Amino acid sequence: MSTPQASLDRRGGLANVIDIVIAPGTGFARLRQAPVWGWAFLVASLLGIAGSLLLAPAILHALEHTLPAQLAANPAIAALPPDQQREKIATVLAVTRTMASVTWVFFPLVLLFSALIQALVMTVVNAATRGDGSFAKFFALSITVGIIGAGFSSLILGVIAAIRGPASFEDAAAVQAVMPGLAVLVPGARGTLAGFLAPLNVFNIWAMVLLALGMIAVGRIPRAAAWATAGAMLFILAAFGAVGAALAR
Questions:
Q1: Count of domains in the chain?
Q2: Which of 60, 99, 109, 236 has the highest CB neighbour number within 10 Å of its CB?
């Protein structure tokens, strides 16, 4: 038999899904009292899965457009006879198609892993600044904010890509570049710069603001430390994007 507290937690968890969008302060106050995250995880995962499925054709088209030339330039493949080159490239493309079709399966796992890392970082900052938060509160905060930074971000990107059509994208960087963000300040950015700017989109910036406000409200972390931590995590995300773009060249 469910207890009144359990029922309250379930209702609060569902309310947090809405409040993180329209009334984050209310959601933060609720998370401070009851750090539940099940509904938030479910909603963020469903949004992200839908976005991944919508985005897959554009990603696949971009990879099929760029990957053969990249593989042909690989010294190990270039040294093979022409027929073996074609066979090797065809094999890699087949694996790529398979991976692109099942990427959505990994979205919930990536969401959990990201929340784990963010919660650990916030817990360390909490201890260093003598806040009164806990790992459980920060984990619930990260999952809840993930509705914006992961769920809606993935869904909107997928919708934009689906509307424009897979043929509109010649490489993976072009897919990420359609999301409104700081990349619009540098039209035509390519390579490492494009990879750095792509994560600095409106949804990730929105999520950064929510994380900072959440650390202040949920864990009583000092404002300067909260904003610096949230900003640093967004910068690291952008840095990973830059490294990925550099390695893909």
A1: 1
A2: 60
